[in-house]
Amino acid sequence: MTRRLCIAVIGLGYFSEFHLGAWQSLEDVGSINVTDLDPDRVAWAADRFNATGYQDSTSLASDSDPDIVDIVAPPPAHENLIRAFARDGRTIVCQKPFCTSLQEAKRAVDFAEKARATLIVHENFRFQPWHRTIKQFLDQDGLGQIYQCRFSLRPGDGRGREAYLSRQPAFRAMPRLLIHETGVHFIDLFRWLFGEIRDVYADIRRLNPVLAGEDAGMLLLNHKSGVQCLFDGNRLSDCETDNPRQTMGQMLIEGEKGALRLDGNGGLFFRAFGDRFERPVPLIGKVDAESFGGGCVGALIRHVVLGHLGLGALENHARDYLSVIRATEAAYASAERGQKITL
After folding, report:
1. Residue 3 banded pLDDT, cuts 50, 70, 90
2. Percent of the chain at pLDDT above 90?
3. CATH number of the domain at 5-122, please?
4. Which of 40, 190, 319, 331 has most Cβ atoms within 10 angstroms of its Cβ?
5. Does domain 126-288+324-342 have CATH number 3.30.360.10?
């Protein structure tokens, strides 16, 4: 009988609930061990997910010896935690935003590789079922030559003086919000779909004065493949959807064979060039309508387990993710200088 995996989850903020639920659902997982700076959150996770709680990461590491470490703690903690847990044969998954800077991320990646640990960034948007389907559609030449892509982010959650207090209050104090916290998902998604990014241009602004960072703006990416992508973000506006956190917006990809459209409910539609009507495109994989992003957290975590067990090739190695961070930092440099930045 194969030994079941020991998992460590470090950081128990709002989004950890999706991580813990995903780990708990897997038959390959034998135990879940958790820690957080807030003892009440440790007690919550222990009770709700049948996890073993620890008062700090040091005792967790020495007592449980985890196979996979899932870092859900904020970016300032990432490098030190990676240094503390990196060892030969261990897989470390780290939430985004990954570290606090490109230089810090490089140090963390170098350290993990030297320790022979596998370091993966928890970039889950590419694991949403509609995005997996789009990737397959494009790989099968469904659009032919791809011209451009536009994603309109419209979650409608950033209005008023109480914005984000009930779910993710840390958003309010982040000096960089729209691109650093949310737009980075789409930088990674566009790079995955269309290849490496060559140029970046950004024009960003703050609409809600209670926030420290930007909550609206445009990010234009030119890919080496010739595809041009526009991320059009506005966290105060919404879109037509039954669940604003399902897709968080709408996407349109245009190419020589027609246009592929994603709606706010996760529906995917193709209209051939010259046709008046579009047809639905069936999604691949299971859609979990009750979980974030159609179940993308669970899909990513299953992917990590299979990779750790040698049953599949892992995506989003941290070394590859450095180009996403580079493009993110270039976006802020572009906005500050008012000019296009070539990577």
Report:
1. confident
2. 95
3. 3.40.50.720
4. 331
5. yes
